[in-house]
Amino acid sequence: MGSLRSAQWYGGMDRNSYMHRAWMRRGLPADAFDGRRPHIAIANTASDLTPCNAHLNEVARSVANGIYQAGGIPLNLPVPSLGETQVRPTAMLWRNMAAMATEELLRGNPIDGVVLLGGCDKTIPALLMAAASVDLPAVVVPGGPMLTGTFRGIPLGCGTDVWRLSEEVRAGTLSAAEFARSESSMIRSRGHCNTMGTASTMGLLTEVLGMTLPGIAGTPASDSRLLEAAHATGVLAVEMVFADRRPSTVLTRASFLNAIVALAALGGSTNAVLHLLAIAGRLGVELTLDDFDRTGSGVPLLVNLQPAGRFLMDDFFRAGGLHAVLAEIRDLLDPSALTVTGRPLVSYLDNATIYDPEVIRPRSAPLQAEAGIAVLYGNLAPDGAVIKPAAASPELLAHRGPAVVFDSIEDLHERLDDPDLEVTPDSVLILRGCGPKGYPGMPEVSNMPLPAKLLARGIRDMVRICDGRMSGTAYGTVVLRVAPEAAAGGPLAKVRNGDVIVLDVAKRRLDVDIPDEELNARPPAPAAVRAFAAPTRGWEKLYVDTVRQANTGADLDFLVGSSGSRVTRESH
Fold first, then answer.
1. Using CA atoms, how far apart are residues 70 and 64, in angstroms rounded to an integer?
2. Given its phi and psi angles, is residue 219 left (phi above 0), alpha (psi -120 to 50 degrees) or beta?
3. Segment 453-504, tens digit of pLDDT
4. Model-level pTM?
5. Partners of residue 462 on adjacent β-strands
6. Which of 101, 401, 411, 496 is most buried, taking the most CB atoms under 10 A from its CB?
7. Which tens digits make up the pLDDT trace of 524-568?
8. How many C-beta neighbours within 10 Å does residue 72 have?
9. What's the number of CA atoms in the CB half-sphere (13 Å) around residue 192?
């Protein structure tokens, strides 16, 4: 027998090894167990209830063919799947569970490496967190974005146009019947959202991190080249096992800093901050919230995609894709960062070309000169909050206004459209009780809808502040993931209606304009405290009891770090 990890299960002639081999001998040849053929799991998040990942079974077949061609043994391994649009109360509640379950399945099974198939928002982050903790050779195949649908002759951006059209209904400029008719146009094909939302962002950043076959990220789900690349990834997975090329050799601080640079140039989702922090935490890589501002805030926005621009992901792919963007900012990338091929990321950029400068702007003519994630601090956010300036209204990035406070998402829905709500365009909408503990799970509600009476006046943006998240497809002047959250004793719980809120993005400040002594002496609002009812059992209790705050990535405290792939005990 060879030195493959799977040989620990299959090698020898004792009763245990006999059982391991015999129960797997269902069509596999005898040489599948001779210690020379790596056993490669295909960690597959395909699910009918995760519509964006439903096509991954077909992708898995191409991966399997590649593994077998290269001499490996492909093994389909269904792992937990999270449908962003389906799972209640929010998919973010389950990201850590999916990561933990996948980690244990990878560690506990006789595999030598793994190909990770994901697409929808939380699936790729969960898979990467799991792979980082186990540290077996691993490579990702992103499921890819859907093709663009149209409604009344206009291209539709998934998510972004849901927010836009729903606000038009509330404003009375679009009928409910027309809104319903747009439903069948929104999702044209297999694949995840076609905007630069969280799914597209994480697929692209996974390649920047070095964890995909170079050139695959952003390939539309319906494009036959995705299956070709999936086959090649299967071949690569076998090579990686023999080269002992593991996540810990690819996912270095240099890789994460490159991802921060790319996040800014792409105009990517603020949710990437959470996921990158969590993945880095599994590896012990030093990465903090401040790295996103320090490394990314001065990077120009080059990608003209919704929600920060006007095009969509299939436009991005035809315009030159990720490599065209990275080539424009090559001088900002750390050339030492490697990929799963063993070669540096920058070595793949020599022939990258922009084919449509309206979609991917050259460095000399950016969409915005500085567009990275801004990290705010102040007496409302002692541990930080974030804002995406590229998706905000420039005139609101420095703003003073009175607070209009909602203690929960239910409170918001109940009172937002009340004609007697005391609110003006200068008001600052505050929604609390939506953080990791308070909801629990940080729902994507920070981009609150605007009051109906202001929509009727033509108002389409206001400053909004929340301890929850915002969809990567959303837009607006939204300060999100305020830490500590209200439910964890953060000062957001002490804000009262009428308090003057001061937002100054240029100075990286978020404050309530009252003396610190007064703020510190205030008790939290009773309604904010009542909104948080701690769960008493199951995953939600484990989550609330152990989840960390947003500024560290919202992983569970006992999952930070890794345990490796070693299993010391035999079950039989």
1. 10
2. beta
3. 999 899 999 999 999 999 877 789 999 999 999 999 999 999 999 999 999 9
4. 0.95
5. none
6. 401
7. 988 877 766 788 899 999 999 999 999 999 999 999 998 999 987
8. 25
9. 35
What is d(CA 225, CA 229) in angstroms, rounded to the nearest whole number?
6
The two counts, helices (H) then strands (E), for the chain are 20, 14
Q: Where are the beta strands (DSSP E) in 281-409?
A: 374-378, 381-387, 398-406
How far is it, in rounded angstroms, from Cα 480 to Cα 384? Answer: 10
Count the residues in the chain: 572
Which backbone phi and psi does 543 adopt, to 5 degrees?
-65, -55
Nearest CA to 55 out of 220, 177, 300 is that of 220
Cβ atoms 492, 483 nearer than 8 A: no
* Gap between the Cα atoms of 196 and 201, Å rounded: 6
CB burial readout 179-205, b (16+ within 10 A) else e: eeebeebbbbbbbbbbbbbbbbbbbbb
Nearest-Å Rg of the Cα atoms of the chain is 24
Strands (E), 193-337: none
CB 531 within 8 A of CB 408: yes
Q: Say how far apart CA 89 and CA 363 lie, in whole Å.
A: 41
